[in-house]
UniProtKB/TrEMBL annotation:
<protein>
    <recommendedName>
        <fullName>HMA domain-containing protein</fullName>
    </recommendedName>
</protein>
<dbReference type="InterPro" id="IPR042885">
    <property type="entry name" value="HIPP47/16"/>
</dbReference>
<dbReference type="GO" id="GO:0046872">
    <property type="term" value="F:metal ion binding"/>
</dbReference>
<dbReference type="InterPro" id="IPR006121">
    <property type="entry name" value="HMA_dom"/>
</dbReference>
<feature type="domain" description="HMA">
    <location>
        <begin position="12"/>
        <end position="82"/>
    </location>
</feature>
């Protein structure tokens, strides 16, 4: 029974939702909502009017819940289909019936740009954050994880995408400041231990007159909310004060 349950969790789902999106801002918002769902690995706008969203997810994605959220926050949304992604479907994607590459018109080449960026993403929250950053770029119509380790992001956009700027955003250092109630040296030591164990962290320091703030510097995407929650559970009251980009002097 456990083995069969595990297999179900590893299956991929393809969800198609028709959404009324009247402007680029609406499309960007819809993409952002979809990428925030647990397990989502690919989101693309389909159809002549880009009014259909195709979402690929690992395991079970709440398709009805996603459609309802889009209906509330974007516009009319109708759940068209939910189906299992077959391995053959993935291998044949981008191939025509004769076995060659699917022809793409010169016009499409001029209008659409594909950018692939390798990103170090060590957890699901990091992947979700990376997707959120990517879909926020103007003109993006498709975002997907690629590679065996899902460590590449493939972005397709209408017109020009600032690939270098996007890569730089994903690469930038973050500074996270968390106020923590630490009553003794042992508490401080425990808090520091928790912070340095967080993925992506390269520097941790106690700040403030009472040494009641932890300043964490991380490369790429640091799970600030998750770190604050861990400190709250294992040390004491913890409040996330700020998350900001580290500017190079």
């Amino acid at each position: 029974m456990l083995a069969s349950e595990f297999v179900v969790l590893m299956l991929q789902q393809k969800i198609v939702i028709e959404v009324q999106m009247k402007c680029k801002k609406c499309r960007s918002k819809a993409l952002k909502i979809a990428t925030a769902e647990d397990g989502v690995t690919s989101v693309a706008l389909k159809g002549e009017n880009k009014n259909r969203m195709e979402i690929i997810g690992d395991g079970i994605v709440d398709a009805a819940g996603l459609a309802e959220t889009l209906r509330k926050k974007v516009g009319y949304a109708d759940l068209v289909s939910v189906e299992e992604v077959k391995e053959n479907d993935m291998s044949q994607k981008g191939r025509n019936k004769s076995g060659g590459d699917t022809p793409v018109s010169n016009m499409q080449h001029e209008l659409e740009q594909k950018v692939v960026i390798a990103v170090t993403m060590k957890c699901d929250k990091c992947r979700s954050k990376a997707l959120e950053i990517a879909v926020a770029k103007d003109g993006v119509i498709s975002v997907a994880f690629k590679g065996e380790m899902k460590n590449q992001i493939e972005i397709v956009g209408e017109g020009f995408i600032d690939a270098a700027g996007l890569a730089e955003t994903l690469r930038k250092k973050q500074k996270v400041v968390i106020e923590v109630k630490m009553k003794c040296k042992k508490c401080r030591s425990k808090a520091l231990e928790i912070a340095v164990g967080n993925k992506g962290v390269i520097s941790v320091a106690l700040k403030g007159e009472s040494k009641n703030q932890i300043e964490v510097i991380g490369e790429g995407i640091v799970d600030a909310a998750g770190l604050a929650e861990a400190l709250r559970k294992k040390v004491g009251y913890a409040d996330l004060v700020s998350v900001e980009e580290v500017r190079e002097s």
